[in-house]
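Notes from the 1:1 (GR / supervisor)

We went over the backlog. Supervisor wanted to see one worked example end to end before approving the batch request, so GR pasted a single chain during the call. The sequence is below; no edits were made to it. Supervisor asked that the structure be written out right there so they could see what the output format looks like.
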Amino acid sequence: MSVLAGLLCAAAPSAGLLVAARFVHGVSGAAGIVIARAVVGDRARGAGAARAYGLLMMTAGVAPVVAPLIGGVLVGAVGWRGIFLVLAGLAALTFLGALFLVPETLPHDRRSGGGLATTLRRTGTLLTDRPFLGYAFAFAFGFGTLFSYLVASPFVYQNVFNLSIGTYAVTLAANAIGVTATSALNRRIVRRFGARLLLRVGLVVMAVCSTTLCLLAGTGLLVRDVAVPLVFVTVSSFGLIAANATALAVARAPQAAGSASAILGALQFGVAATVSPLVGLGGENTAVPMTVAMAASTVVAGSAVLALAGTDRDGDELA
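Structure output shown during the call:
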């Protein structure tokens, strides 16, 4: 479906058809995100799951940061229609890889029927599981912090801090490397320190840096040489949050990894869709909306873990 939607986008003769094809494109892409997390939930448990999610999040966390760089290069070379052809080609390669390289991961003894009714019942159960919701909100609003930066940084870095396009591209790439590095570090140390501790460390680091950014921006004291490293640390800390929050959340639903993954994905992109317009409320010449959105998202993420998952003793097993 993603291949066909990409081809339709590339050939769309009108804005209406383009929007419709992009909707299908998004829906089909969402399936891949959900299934990838569910596959890890089927194959790994405990710290092994956190390590596997770390590898997955190295891609998922870096992709939103790197995508604008790649898109900027491609649009000049092949145009916007060509970008959709590239996406269709990548979707085709992904399909072939899944078809020939990824076997069914859920054992027969763990499969169940029931269709939509069973799925809705499991989803309802998860939505009443306080620790699951705590970890899910930590993941989603941690991503909200990252996404607030991604949406607003082109204007903030270039209009407020007067970075050139080339320098901005370098900072964007550096932040992508930061997320990758902390994700890789998390994979190496999660067995020693445990997913819950590393999640909390990531949230504390993100909270300190994002609230500092917010306070400095609100008082007019935020300058480029302070903002750029603070944003780097804030964004990089997502590497500790994403994998561990996902592993802890899915561990709450060993028989419903697909439903858990779907809720995580819905919350993740629901938060992203919410913060996107908010960071532009103050116009293109202020960093305040971006920093407020980053700090607010981080506060919600940390509060969710404390209020909803603070007594989760099962999560201590992910070590």
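Supervisor's comment: The chain has a mean pLDDT of 85.
Batch request approved.
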